[in-house]
Amino acid sequence: ATDAKQRTDSCRFTVTVTQPPPPSPRISVTRFLAFGDSITEGLFPFLITPNPPGSYPAVLQSLLRTRYTAQADSIVVLDEGLGGQRAADPDEFPRFRDALNRDNAGAVLLMEGANDLNNGAAAGDAVAAIPALVSGLRAMVREARGRGLPVFVATLPPQRAGGPKAGAPGA
């Protein structure tokens, strides 16, 4: 090595490269709370079949069980979706807290907010709905994280102008 004053020195050392251990085939969380609106709840008809085939909680549960075969029987994705719900609704936070208390989940999958924007668009101003939506989501994230749970917040699905639920594609 040479420094700024052109002094040089050298040394020797041995580097041993070892292969890292393989990733654990086990996941530490086996109970997931999927909470949200009709996107979480799943396919029609609502309220007749909990966690219906094709709903994202059912598909995720199947994927996790296929990937983590050693504990496949203990992996559960609990479907706490309810059509029409809004993050800003005053009853939504208590519903979320009740689900946390009841389900004893190890992680939270939070997918909510589309109805807040759609309802704002129906009222003529989806942008005005954003602060209450963010506040509702933040309260839920704080509650879950305060219990030591990791929280995964899903993005809102893209809206296509002219689509059946495209009340506010630019919001």
* Biggest β-sheet strands, sense, barrel: 4 strands, parallel
The rounded distance between the terminal residues' Cα atoms is: 57 Å
Chain-averaged pLDDT: 81
The global form is extended
Q: What's the β-strand tally? A: 4
Number of helices: 5
Fraction in helix: 25-40%
* Helix and strand sequence: EHHEHEHHE
The computed structural class is: alpha/beta
Parts with pLDDT < 50 across at least 5 consecutive residues = none
What proportion of the residues form beta strands (DSSP E)? 5-15%
Radius of gyration over all CA atoms, rounded: 23 Å
Strand order of the largest sheet: 2-1-3-4
What does this structure look like?
The protein is built from five helices and four strands. With 171 residues, the protein is an alpha/beta fold. The model has no long low-confidence stretch (mean pLDDT 81). The radius of gyration is 23 Å and the shape is extended. Helix 3 (92-103) packs parallel to helix 5 and helix 4 packs antiparallel against helix 5.
